[in-house]
Amino acid sequence: MLLTTEEENVLNGNFGIGKSNAMKLLVSLGEMFDADRLIPIKRAHWAVSGQEGDLFFAEKLANSGARVSVVTTTNPAWDSSLSDLFHVDIDDYERSLLDRTIEVSDKLGVIKSFNCTPYLYKDVPSFGEHTAFSESSATPYINSVYGARTNRESSSSALAAGVIGKTPNYGLHLDKNRVPNITVDVSAQIKDDFDMGLLGWYLGEILKPDDVPLIRGLSSEMTEEGLRDFGAMINTSGAVSLFHLEGVTPEVKRISDTSLWVTSREKITVTSEDVERVRKKFTERGGKINSVYIGCPHSTIPEIMKVNRLLDGRKVNDDVKFLIFTSATNLKILGENVKKLASKGVYVMQDSCVDEPVFKFTEGGLGATNSLKAAYYRKRRNQEFVVTTIENLVEAAVRGYI
Ligand code: F3S
Q1: For domain 285-399, which architecture applies?
Q2: Across residues 40-64, what is the average pLDDT?
């Protein structure tokens, strides 16, 4: 990979050890993937998770003087006030991971947005813009829905890119790798955002990591929630970071010359049975539930207000913790509505991720969620789920069983 004189100097430590460490990671990555050079970025998203693996590299950078040079936002960890609210016994090590996450974020100068959907509303890259985003729902959303460009970054490579302000020029930064190599015809009935998540999960399981699908047969009236969930699931069950939806996403026009396509794979069709199989895989037999999880990825304001509306004149069952995860910004905008929801038994929380120790009080019981990703992660924490729509979740929460 060709480096400019200034980049060589950064690599050699002439601008400090911290920057040199970040540059070493980017150069190794670039050489591994045959990048020709580094390209400038204007923003990065660091999927720090409040876990040891991410903190190791971040602390190494911060302690050797590195600071981000472009706007770098962060994924959620957990809101420290929740341990008191839910009377959770957090041990010293779990608490130290959160404290270290906050401390290293301050040292690095990242924006402590603690939100996994930075691409909605406030950190929106433009068409063709080069970025470095980690986080499973973020990479497909900005690549596909905005036509911006990012590889499927790890937490560490996104942070290194934020420090240097550049990323290696390979993969989805290049025109040739953004052209579809497989056509997906959907004959299944995809009715709502929830079904988009199921479809995404199914496709993630059958597509290869480098596949770029052109998807046909879906309604052109997509919601941002449906697109968010589709991307989150296709990039959790699999590793697909760019998709094109006919009639919806912006690059379909550019790639309409099918002679450009790599036709190494046949067209596939997704049937209702395929989608139904995914639902069944994640749905335990019903029963008494101890919790409802909504907001993996973080909920939008319309989703939260929908819960509010559906609960009109009713309350969540005393035995159920109804948890909604969202950004601090959304929480502010919602204002008094957060109190109204609390009076109905719904906790709307900022800065937090479903996969954190502060929610251990629901482990061992049956939960209900609209997110396959939440079900997947929390299964590792000894909690089974029924996955279903927000409408069904509200009814189950009132009854106390599903
Ligand atoms: Fe967000 Fe955590 Fe889910 S980062 S997407 S709430 S696993």
Answers
A1: 2-Layer Sandwich (3.30)
A2: 94
More confident residue, 210 or 370: 370
pLDDT at 263: 53
CATH 3.30.499.10 for domain 5-175: yes
Phi and psi (nearest 5°) for 380?
Answer: -70, -15
pLDDT band at 49 (very low <50, low <70, confident <90, very high): confident
Q: Is the beta carbon of 325 within 6 A of some atom in ligand 1? A: yes
**Does residue 390 contact residue 225 with C-beta atoms inside 8 Å?**
no
| Segment among 27-31, 238-242, 262-266 with least mean pLDDT | 262-266
For the record, the structure tokens of 73 come out as 């936002």
Cα of 293 vs centre of ligand 1, distance in Å, is: 11
Give the H/E segment covering residue 305: helix 301-310
Which of 117, 237, 303, 353 is the best mutation target for the ligand 1 pocket, counting ligand atoms within 8 Å of the beta carbon and taking the most?
A: 353
pLDDT surpasses 90 at 210: no
Residue pair 66/25 in contact (Cβ under 8 Å)? The answer is: no
Question: Cα separations (Å) of 332 from 216, 298, 299, 327, 328?
Answer: 38, 14, 14, 9, 6
Instruction: Give the Å distance between the CA of 353 and the centre of ligand 1.
Output: 5
Which residue is associated with the tokens 């040739």? 176
Q: Do domains 5-175 and 285-399 have the same CATH topology?
A: yes
- pLDDT at residue 325, rounded to an integer: 98
Q: Ligand 1 centre and the CA of 391: distance in Å?
A: 21
Mean pLDDT for the chain overall: 94
What are the structural domain ranges in the chain?
A: 5-175, 179-280, 285-399
229 in Cβ contact with 190 (< 8 Å): no
Statement: residue 248 has pLDDT above 60 = yes
Return the residue matching tokens 């401390």.
103
Take atom 3 of ligand 1 and give the residue whose Cα is closest: 296
Q: Are 43 and 131 in contact (CB under 8 A)?
A: yes
Ligand 1 pocket residue status of 44, Cβ below 6 Å:
no
Residue whose Cα lies nearest atom 5 of ligand 1: it is 297
Q: Is 354 in the pocket of ligand 1 (CB under 6 A)?
A: yes
CB distance 122 to 329 below 8 Å:
yes
